[in-house]
């Protein structure tokens, strides 16, 4: 007999999973991360294993993939589209490897192929006699959706294949969007008053599953091949490597891949990739896929109900997690800007525990519709500070509370104001201690005057004990002042003083940036330092400043306002007396590796966008052009390269593959 409580939990899990399926699949709008979804599924499976009598044919566990709910015509796949098993730890990967070795003859050491696990959506393309007949999403693994018209708009999906292709080929791969195109799509969505997509995968899914192919066409989706369902007629392939090579010969873009001769090499690759490649990728990858290369060995290993035994996804920790907003606090920045920060129930995400998430500003809170008590989906990408991507408004209980901007500064009690042209609320008290601390930390930070040893704990004490009031005060500090601080002895005090003295010689752009003038970032500071010495800058008029191409009226007014306040005038005098470098900086010459050389890019690049590639060329002193001539130094050919590649060959211009280009520009 099934206990009532278990029954209730099973029902709840099923309903919850179905709800998430609907959001994920029908609306491309999930509110929980994949890991959390997997967790729900795992728990349901556990209960169903303990109580097999509770299993029903419509339980979410009985499907291969997530449920298909759709307006598109259904397509039955010729061969089921299975999924991959996942592991997150080295131990679990080793276990998989041990099982695998047991099922192979003792003297057979498999070669592994390693591919990135691209975080897009899988798509099956059916070619007959080399012509694209149909494109289908995976759906539930048995039945997907017919998205042929949309797929035909994707440049990396060829409409016809080379003659060498098999008579019938159902090739499978990933449809995805680059980070930069994702940002562009979301900007356009927001401009049109629609909700932005939560992440690139949902954006790719929403773009492929479009009623109007013209919209898909605008989204710059990409496709790479990673497997096949049907291969009939034509020369057969006997390994993953041969398959991927054949794809390339047919005109398809194969997923990038590497070989590993041992499990140890696979593991090394996993960490290396995470450290060196992952942060630079132009698109989302959430792990590596390890496959046994030989098809003979694959056949011997076979499949479980859901996935092949010869492949495993070795995933990187989730970048998203859901949690509850417990309260919203306000932090005061160096210019008095008040930033709302959500204190959330601690949650493990992308390798760290997160309890604080920035909300940027009050407009952002409004955009998200966030209230205290809400369940939110948070995301941490790379080194970036975690942020809220979505509020699960449909899970509200009615107890949630709106976030109200504070009327007084949480640090000094001063008046909080909102200036018309800015979105931010600010504390209007120039001697607010929180602002002073932030400004000192900014002044001492690495991109500014770079004073090591001047961290938060020191700044807090210096301000709280009223040892210093502003940045010039740093240069007036004496050893005795420092010795009064907590944990300061001779050596530490001397080191810090040495750092402060050293900062006097830093180039002017660092000082300008360090002063914390509103609207003046590192890049603008650099431009200003190349045009003026500090006193010249202080005397520049608004009109003059506006003649600088990157300085608009708001920035110009901010610079002018800053230098024309009596406090700044006094501050500059003290900084000058302290010996800081006010001299104009020389124009920086960029690296000249490609000086005088013109590059032409053609076809689809897989690991970076065209813009990123062109940026690299420019950063190395070269030029990027759209047309090939005898003067072109290199043509870089991605997938589907056409007439430009032909022209390059005719003219004898050197052609580089994307990989060669990456090698040439490595380290940038
Ligand atoms: S091979 C039997 N290779 O991950 C499955 N899949 O969970 C054969 N994916 O639906 C798939 N990158 O869409 C394979 N390099 C890769 C992949 C990859 C991403 C997706 C695929 C599949 C899902 C499996």
- CATH architectural designation of the largest domain: 2-Layer Sandwich
CATH topology of the largest domain: D-amino Acid Aminotransferase, Chain A, domain 1
- Give the proportion of residues in helices: 25-40%
Tell me the name of the CATH class of the largest domain.
Alpha Beta
Task: Write a structural description.
This protein is of the alpha+beta class and 668 residues long. It has six domains: 4-62, Helix hairpin bin (Helix Hairpins), CATH 1.10.287; 75-315, D-amino Acid Aminotransferase, Chain A, domain 1; 321-402, Nucleic acid-binding proteins (OB fold (Dihydrolipoamide Acetyltransferase, E2P), Beta Barrel), CATH 2.40.50.140; 433-505, DNA polymerase, domain 1, CATH 1.10.150.20; 508-578, DNA polymerase, domain 1 (Orthogonal Bundle), CATH 1.10.150; 598-664, BRCT domain (Rossmann fold). Helix content is 36%, strand content 20%. The strands form seven sheets. A five-stranded mixed sheet has the order 2-11-10-3-9. It has a five-stranded antiparallel sheet with strand order 14-13-12-16-17. Strands 5-4-7-8 form a four-stranded antiparallel sheet. Strand 23, helix 23 (643-651) and strand 24 form a beta-alpha-beta unit. Helix 16 packs across helix 17 (522-531). The termini are far apart.
């Amino acid at each position: 007999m099934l206990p009532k409580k278990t029954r209730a939990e099973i029902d709840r899990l099923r309903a919850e999973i179905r709800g998430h399926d609907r959001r994920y699949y029908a609306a491309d709008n999930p509110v929980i991360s994949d890991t959390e979804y997997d967790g729900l599924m795992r728990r349901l499976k556990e209960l169903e294993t303990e109580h097999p009598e509770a299993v029903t044919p419509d339980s979410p566990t009985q499907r291969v993939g997530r449920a298909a709910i759709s307006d598109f015509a259904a397509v039955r796949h010729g061969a089921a589209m299975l999924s991959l098993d996942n592991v997150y730890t080295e131990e679990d990967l080793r276990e998989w490897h041990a099982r695998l070795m047991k099922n192979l003859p003792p003297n057979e050491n498999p070669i592994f192929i390693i591919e990135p696990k691209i975080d897009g959506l899988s798509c099956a393309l059916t070619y007959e006699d080399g012509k694209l007949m149909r494109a289908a999403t995976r759906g539930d693994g048995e039945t997907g959706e017919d998205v042929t018209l949309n797929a035909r708009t994707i440049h990396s999906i060829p409409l016809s294949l080379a003659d060498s292709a098999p008579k019938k080929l159902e090739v499978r791969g990933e449809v995805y969007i680059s980070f930069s195109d994702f940002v562009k799509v979301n900007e356009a969505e927001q401009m049109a008053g629609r909700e932005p997509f939560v992440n690139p995968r949902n954006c790719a899914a929403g773009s492929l599953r479009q009623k109007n192919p013209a919209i898909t066409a605008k989204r710059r989706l990409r496709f790479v091949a990673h497997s096949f369902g049907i291969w009939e007629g034509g020369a057969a392939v006997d390994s993953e490597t041969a398959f991927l090579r054949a794809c390339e010969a047919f005109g398809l873009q194969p997923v990038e891949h590497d070989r590993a001769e041992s499990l140890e090499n696979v593991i090394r690759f996993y960490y290396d990739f995470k450290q060196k490649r992952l942060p630079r990728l132009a698109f989302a990858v959430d792990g590596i896929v390890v496959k046994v290369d030989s098809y003979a060995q694959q056949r011997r290993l076979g499949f479980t109900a859901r996935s092949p035994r010869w492949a495993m996804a070795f995933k990187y920790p989730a970048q998203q997690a859901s949690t509850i907003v417990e309260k919203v606090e306000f932090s005061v920045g160096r210019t008095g800007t008040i930033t709302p920060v959500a204190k959330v129930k601690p949650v493990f995400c992308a390798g760290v525990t997160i309890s604080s998430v920035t909300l940027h500003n009050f407009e952002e809170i409004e955009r998200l519709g966030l209230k205290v008590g809400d369940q939110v989906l948070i995301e941490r990408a790379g080194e970036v500070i975690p942020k809220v991507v979505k509020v699960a408004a449909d899970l509200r209980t009615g107890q949630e509370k709106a976030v109200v901007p504070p009327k007084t500064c949480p640090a000094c009690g001063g008046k909080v104001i909102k200036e018309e042209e800015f979105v931010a609320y600010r504390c209007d008290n120039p001697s607010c201690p929180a602002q002073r601390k932030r400004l000192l930390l900014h002044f001492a930070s690495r991109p500014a005057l770079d004073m090591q040893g001047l961290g938060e704990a020191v700044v807090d004490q210096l301000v709280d004990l009223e040892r210093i009031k502003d940045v010039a005060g740093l240069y007036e500090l004496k050893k005795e002042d420092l010795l009064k601080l907590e944990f300061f002895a001779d050596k530490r005090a001397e080191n810090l003083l040495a750092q402060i003295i050293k900062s006097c010689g830093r180039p002017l752009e660092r000082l300008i940036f360090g002063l914390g003038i509103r609207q003046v970032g590192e890049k603008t500071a650099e431009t200003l330092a190349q045009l003026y010495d500090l006193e010249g800058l202080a005397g520049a008029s608004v009109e003059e400043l506006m003649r600088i191409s990157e300085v608009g009226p708001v920035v110009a007014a901010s610079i002018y306002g800053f230098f024309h306040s009596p406090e700044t005038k006094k501050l500059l005098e003290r900084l000058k007396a302290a010996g800081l470098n006010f001299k104009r900086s020389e124009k920086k010459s960029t690296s000249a590796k490609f000086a005088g050389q013109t590059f032409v890019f053609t076809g689809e690049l897989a690991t970076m966008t065209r813009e990123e590639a062109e940026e690299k060329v420019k950063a190395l002193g070269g030029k990027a052009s759209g047309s090939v001539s005898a003067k072109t130094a290199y043509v870089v050919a991605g997938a589907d390269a056409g007439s430009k590649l032909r022209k390059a060959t005719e003219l004898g211009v050197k052609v580089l593959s994307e990989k060669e280009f990456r090698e040439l520009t490595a380290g940038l």
